[in-house]
């Protein structure tokens, strides 16, 4: 029997049919979510009817084979030349229903239906997209056997197969220049997540995808050294010395060293994101194979936002003093920071606090949300009130501030009568225009270190909160900076009531919220809306906020209504590390 053989070879990765075999297929079991198996496509068998042929074709499309050679054997010769499998990938929540329509002696019609959860576009970018999916396939007899004569471009996979076949990786671009900055700075690298077939020459595919340019969403805020340049290398991989050589279509790179160096930086950062222990350096050669430049880790540091200085901060629950968590993480052993925020008798009682990424300055909101202060974290520093105030009722004023990697401070005023978002540069506030709110208001925000992406906590008229990712664009002059947040897109559409959000990596957020009729829990989500394989973290009773940072090695912390700070351990369990404490926060 051909079909059981397909399923045995494919394991949990194959898209099963609707018959008895699918009842025991591993793809149906939740305990195999992280299982990755190699998929071997099977050639068309003789005597298959249109429905069986289509089911086997769908299996063949997820095979670990370059060029979809076997899958194209299920098509007529003309359609095999026309079909564009890379046009898009439709991801369904479960197995599709394959329904037989009209059948004649020489022609037949079959439809595929399912519940769609997401799509990959031609640039391999992920986009959540729900709703009913429907596709039609036409068949004709060729040499006495059914073949597909018409089909939609792209692939159709279920969620389990998608996670087995595709791997989420980042390609890296440079943040666009900000004309309002007083002096030029080295542009920061910005990750642009895409999905590649994990076992089909991933480094080569990543290099080609990088040269093809950023996703449509990110494109307005970034630039690339590969403008008009393609990758000519057919196969890219490290040699024994962990050096990758990439040949590109540019001419005479030796005379354009800065462009060459930036190409190398983009390539190296993209490669190390998916093969950190296999690649140390990148050599870029021109179209004739002449060596242009060599780039190592040290060169990429010039374009990387500095990580947070210091560890976690929190506030003493009684005095509201700002405390630095002890490295011993012994409950009650935190140390008060130097300066006004660490004093027992504070000049002004503070609410939320954000520490700048260098650890030398903090922004603090008055406990009633009416005013914003800046203060140094050194002995003798003074509490300095900014011009930013809010006339909102208590609890609806200024949000928790957030620092980007350039030292700009971001904050939202939640005043129902006049909601707004502000960026402070050198204590001077500038209004930030937010497109696409649709009547919603910004209740909180977390800016990425690169300053190009911002996670927004949005509330609708009913008070329900969701989180969306926005793209930051800068214009104007040094005297009159102009800032726009645009391209809002949901990143956790399954959560209907979000109360906190924090960056957990340069391309990932940890979001505290709950699903419909569910309980509140923290969840890891990608900035593109995709969920991590281990997406849901264990909840603590009465959780109120979460704290993480863009260093993936840093621990996740949370607080709860019992006035304790908890640390998430490598075993997935929470452990109390500070008592009589609240509001954990990393620099940023």
From TrEMBL:
SUPFAM superfamilies: Calcium-dependent phosphotriesterase
UniProt domain Lipoprotein LpqB C-terminal: residue ranges: 331-587
Domain of life of the native organism: Bacteria
Region described as Disordered: spans on this chain: 327-347
Positions of the Lipoprotein LpqB N-terminal domain: 44-163
InterPro entries: LpqB_C (IPR018910), LpqB_N (IPR059026)
Protein name, as recorded: GerMN domain-containing protein
Species this protein is from: Peterkaempfera bronchialis
